[in-house]
Amino acid sequence: MGKGSFKINGLAGLSKKLKKNASMDDVKTIVKTNTAELTAEMQRESQIVLTGHWEGKKFVKPTGATKRSITMHMSNNGLAGHAGPKTEYAPYLIRGTRYMVKRDFFLPPLRKQKQKFRSDLERLMQ
């Protein structure tokens, strides 16, 4: 699965400002909270988007394997959070194929959470 990520420019300035206004524990809390929210939102979105498929003339109901595979883990001493599906076929669901339209449960929650994460960090800097 390709990693979905984003970068905050001006990390040195952010770090300097955070040192004045907040502790690193506050930053770790924000990272963990946003990662957990992103994981939950991806799981919710997968239930909405993944509704089953046709195999020939037979409709196959979703098993929920992709939803169950969406997990989170923290790294870099709590300063980095990772969320996403672990099934090997998840990229095909997200991007689609020439035979199947995309069923993107990954990028919409990521875009939404990215804005919230940025605003949470900016609130810490004030």
Q: How is the biggest beta sheet arranged?
A: 2 strands, antiparallel
Beta-strand content: 5-15%
- In N-to-C order, the SSE pattern is HHEEHEEHH
Q: Whole-number average pLDDT? A: 87
Helix content: 40-55%
The end-to-end distance, rounded to whole angstroms, is: 37 Å
Total helical segments? 5
Shape: elongated
Give the C-alpha Rg.
Answer: 18 Å
- Which structural category fits the helices and strands? alpha+beta
Strand order of the largest sheet: 1-2
Q: Enumerate the spans where pLDDT stays under 50 for 5 or more consecutive residues.
A: none
Give the beta-strand count: 4
Written description of the protein model:
By secondary structure, this protein is of the alpha+beta class. It contains five helices and four strands, in the order H-H-E-E-H-E-E-H-H. A hairpin with a 2-residue loop joins strand 1 (53-55) and strand 2 (58-60). The longest helix is centred in the first third of the chain and has 26 residues, at 24-49. The protein starts with 10 loop residues before the first helix and ends with a helix.
What's the short story on this structure?
With 126 residues, this protein is an alpha+beta fold. 53% of the residues lie in helices and 13% in strands. The strands form two sheets. The protein has a two-stranded antiparallel sheet. A two-stranded antiparallel sheet has the order 3-4.
Descriptive key words:
alpha+beta; two-stranded antiparallel sheet; single chain; 5 helices; elongated; two-stranded antiparallel ribbon; 4 strands
